[in-house]
Design goal:
By secondary structure, this protein is of the alpha/beta class. It has two domains: 6-80 and 201-361, Rossmann fold (3-Layer(aba) Sandwich), CATH 3.40.50; 91-196, no CATH class. The protein contains twelve helices and eleven strands. The chain has helices at residues 6-9, 32-41, 57-64, 76-86, 91-102, 115-118, 125-137, 142-159, 179-196, 241-247, 274-293, 316-327, and strands at residues 48-50, 69-73, 162-165, 168-171, 205-208, 221-226, 294-305, 307-308, 313-314, 330-344, 348-361. The strands form three sheets. It has a seven-stranded mixed beta sheet, with helices on both faces. A two-stranded antiparallel sheet has the order 3-4. The protein has a two-stranded antiparallel ribbon with strand order 8-9. The longest helix is centred in the C-terminal third of the chain and has 20 residues, at 274-293. The structure holds S-adenosylmethionine (SAM). The site of S-adenosylmethionine (SAM) has 23 residues, from β2.
Length: 366
């Protein structure tokens, strides 16, 4: 049985109302409910691995369910968010640091030179962000430093005159929000969440690593719950280029797609776009890794979306199921969560694609 609102649970929207899960909005994420449902419905055991952990939904939900977990992501911002949301803290230390920050008065200590980024803010906002960024860097305790950094990253996204739409950033003028007030208010809210939420002490392991390469020990993982980048959103990391450029010194070249990053144009011999072929080759490697580290009898729950291209659609769920079966997985189920319309130039309907939950099992004997 799957929940009636599975179509919502495969999105980040329900997480917006969930303490801790909502510390950083991540439009590519799914929600806590999908993890809770999968764990119960398929009697999943830990440790749970999420090789595309994003901002840590699987890891945090597992912590709430007292299950051990491991996560990988190639984005340093996602890894930071996953860590900050799943650490155990001394709340008194955070409060003490917050008091010190309240006494600070932003003054210019240096300007961000990048004119493109500067243009995204009202006068003075970027200087305040930079001031607090420098102060955050001075916090000695790494856990508390990262906690404040996540609050600052969230604040930056809120005050900047841009919105994240589809796979790109669009300019949108917002009111002139005071950075200090928003930033310290965010830290306070995060603190209140920690006080209110009861969680196990288990701290997941989180690595900045590529799911195509990241090898864990054979038969070492109880289950997998994950959602790889969707085929039609391969360039979506562009959406975070402002945050990555400001706080992680990421060059734009490194922000390109991580899955299927070398493919462009159209394949001659087949109708499927080259990028889709490269995507499935990469996903084959990811599935092979999963098969290696899952215990026999272990299940993999994978949320996938189909690909929308200007002249065709590609149903990823069936292709991935085929790949998984070639590797040796047994198909347990394919649950369609929703159908999404694909449009060209926002007006011409190309077709529909499915967003599905695949349930695979590594057989107990080969
Ligand atoms: C669909 S999102 C998963 C979001 C996650 N379920 C959550 O709730 O936050 C896919 C994630 O895969 C990451 N990613 C892309 N290519 C990767 C790769 N080769 N290895 C590991 N992570 C990758 C992206 O940075 C993104 O965070």
């Amino acid at each position: 049985m799957h929940p009636k609102n599975l179509h919502e649970l495969v999105t980040f929207v329900p997480n917006k109302a969930e303490p801790v899960h909502n510390w950083l909005y991540y439009k590519e994420g799914f929600s806590r409910g999908v993890v809770e449902w999968a764990v119960k419905e398929f009697s999943l055991e830990g440790p749970v691995c999420d090789p595309f952990c994003g901002v840590g939904t699987t890891l945090l939900a597992c912590k709430q369910l007292s299950l051990e977990s491991i996560g990988f992501d190639v984005s340093p911002m996602a890894v930071l968010a996953s860590e900050v949301k799943t650490r155990n803290y001394s709340l008194g230390e955070i409060e003490k640091t917050l008091k010190e920050f309240h006494k600070m008065h932003p003054r210019e200590i240096g300007k961000f030179q990048n004119k493109k980024i500067r243009r995204l803010f009202h006068a003075g906002q970027l200087d305040d962000i930079y001031f607090f960024y420098r102060k955050v860097q001075e916090i000695e305790d790494a856990k508390i430093r990262n906690f404040f950094l996540l609050a600052l990253i969230d604040t930056t996204g809120r005050v900047a005159n841009v919105v994240k739409i589809g796979g790109s950033l669009r300019k949108q003028r917002k009111p002139h929000f005071p950075v200090k007030k928003l930033f310290l208010g965010k830290v306070k809210k995060m603190l209140l969440d920690l006080e209110a939420l009861k969680m196990s002490e288990t701290e997941p392991k989180v690595f900045e690593a590529d799911a195509r390469m990241a090898k864990l020990k054979e038969n070492s993982v109880g289950s997998v719950i994950t959602s790889p980048p969707y085929l039609n959103k391969i360039e979506y990391t562009k959406v975070y280029k402002m945050e990555l450029g400001l706080f992680f010194q990421e060059q734009e070249t490194k922000l390109r797609a991580y899955i299927a990053d070398e493919a462009t144009g159209h394949a001659g011999e087949t109708k499927m776009p080259v990028i889709a072929k490269a995507y499935f080759d990469d996903m084959h490697r990811v599935l092979k890794n999963m098969f290696h580290y899952l215990v026999p009898g272990g299940k993999a729950i994978i949320v996938v979306g189909g690909g929308c291209f200007p002249y065709e659609t590609v149903e990823s769920d069936d292709i991935l199921l085929e790949e998984a079966e070639k590797i040796g997985f047994k198909k347990i189920d394919k649950i369609v969560a929703r159908n999404v319309q694909c449009m060209r130039n926002r007006t011409i309907k190309v077709g529909t694609v499915r967003e599905s939950v695949l349930v695979l099992e590594k057989p107990t004997e080969n």
